[in-house]
Every structure is written in structure tokens, then in C-alpha cells.
Amino acid sequence: MNLSKNEKAMTIIAGVIMGVIGASLVLFGNPKNMGFCIACFLRDTAGGVGLHRAEVVQYIRPEIIGLIFGSLFAALATKEFSPRGGSAPMTRFVLGFFAMIGALMFLGCPFRMILRIAGGDLNAIVAFVGFVCGIATGVLFLNRGYSLSRTRKVSKSEGSILPVIALVFLVLIVAAPAFIFFSEKGPGSMHAPLAISLIAGIIVGALAQRTRFCMVGGIRDMILFRENRLLLGFVAVLVSALAMNLIFSATTGTSYFNLGFENQPIAHSDGLWNFLGLYLTGFACVLLGGCPLRQLILSGEGNTDSAVTILGLFVGAAFAHNFGLAASGDGPTVNGMIAVVIGIVVVAVIAFTNLKTAKE
Fold it and tell me: Is 360 inside a domain boundary?
């Protein structure tokens, strides 16, 4: 993999901007250390449309809509909107489902993991180690021939379905009909103004589309090819978000940086299950070909396989809250622990059963 210095510079600049936006969204009203979290925001959105009834996490998050729109606009502008799909959709749905179960055990996706570290949350470093181990496990299978079936071209109308759904969600949050749920307390009630959240999502979505930004891809590429471009973007998010948290703490009189394990916002300090939660997410996402953020970006480009993965994440979030699988500030539930272990087994079975021989 030979990449130009310009490509690396663009990725670093994009990472800096993403980190600044992620930290700034907290200043505007998002929960602390949650300027962006694909897992949490899909969970909130699932609650907003009534797929679960956990009253504290119900809000259609404009950032998710913006990410899809930003990717779509960038792809159309560069003629990269290329609807494709048909690669093991049910397998991708299941992998997305369990990637979400792991993320909600940790209480965050890989993007929020970085933002939590930037906010001083040392629990996220434990989860990061699990995340890397999960990716490394997936890479072992990639090296042994793991592969899902090939994609094929699909119609533009099929590739546009998820962006259209995102547009419908935008209409729903603006119109606020009675059947849409809005949290009155808890994380779901904490959000930046709609316009700011939407614009932030569009900017990050466009940047991620142009740079192929992916938290899983950065570590995977470093292990497989010793290529650090995406990893440098990863680091840029961390450094810029950390800098903004320190600046906001010094200028607002409110602490946006709290170094330690205890008393972290929307987090728990059970190290084993933080580790295993993101181990599962990292393992599943390697087999999917990208992190939850990357799946959203690909869906904006018309990739229906990624759209199916997003549906898996969405249903996983609803399932987690309907059946008591998601962790909370008090720690993981027994049901959640069982679900994570089952998820690791299921993902391992998927990895083994999709190993391709040379003849295949």
C-alpha cells in the first residue's frame, strides 16, 4: 500500500475537524464524551420511533441523518454514488446486530471510545485494548481466507432506500407527530440544536466519505499492511478532541475532562465487560469490513450491504433495551453478559464457516 503524503495529510485534517466537532457538540448540548456515537445515536433513534421503550434514550438523532446525507452529497459530487449489494445480507445483519450488543455493553461505538479517552475516561482505554484484540482476531480469519460473497450492481432506487429513510426521519423530527418519542430526562434529552447537529453530521459524513475514514480499518490496515494513514486520522480525532475539552474546561467553568475510572459520564467501570464488549464489536466489524461509522458512510454511497448492516445495528439496539442487555452507569446486566458471550461465539462461527479455500 503506497499512499501519497497528500492523502495522509487530508486524513489527519479530517480527523482534526471531526474531533473539534465531536467535542463542540457536547458544548452545544450533547451528553459529555458523546459528541458523536453511532451506537448510542442509533439506539436513541430506535427509541424515538418506538422500537424500544427505555424513556431516557429516545430521540431521533440528526447527526445520523447528517452522516448519511453528507456521504451521499460527497459521493454524488465526485460521481462515486455506486449502488451495490447482495453480499450475504443475513450474515451482515447478524454481524451488525452483535456489533451493537458489544457496543452497548461498553456504552459506545469506536468513535465514542476515542471521545471518551479524550475526556479522560480510562475505562475506554481498557475497551480500546479489547477492540484491538477483536480486530486482531478478525485479521487472523482474513489471513486464512475469510470472505463473504461478492457484491453486484443494484438499481439506483435500491441504493437510495436508506438515504430516503433518513429523509423521512428528518421530517419526523421536525414535524414531531404524537407517535414519535422524545426523552424528557437522561441522555436522550441531552442534545445540541437540530440544525447544528444536522450540519455537524453532514460535515463529518462528507469528510469520512472522502477519506474512507474508519476506526476498524485504521487498526486492521496497520496489522495487515503496516499502513498508518487511517490510524493517523484516528489519533487526530483524539488529540483535537482532547485539546478542545481542555480549552472548554478552562474557559467555561465546567469540566469537560475528568481523568480516571470512576464518575465518568454514561459509563461504567467494569473492566472485563468493557474489554469484552468492544472485543465483540471489533471482531464483528472486521468481518463486516468497517466500523459503524464506515457502514453509515457506505450506505450513503448506495451500498445496500451496509444498509442491511445498519438495520442489524438498529434492531440490535432495540433488542438490547427491550431485553435488558445494555449496560448502564451501574454496570452490565447478567442478560447483557450472556448476550456478549453468545455474540462472540456466533461471530466466531460466522468467521469459520466463511473461510474460502484456494479452489473456491
Answer: no
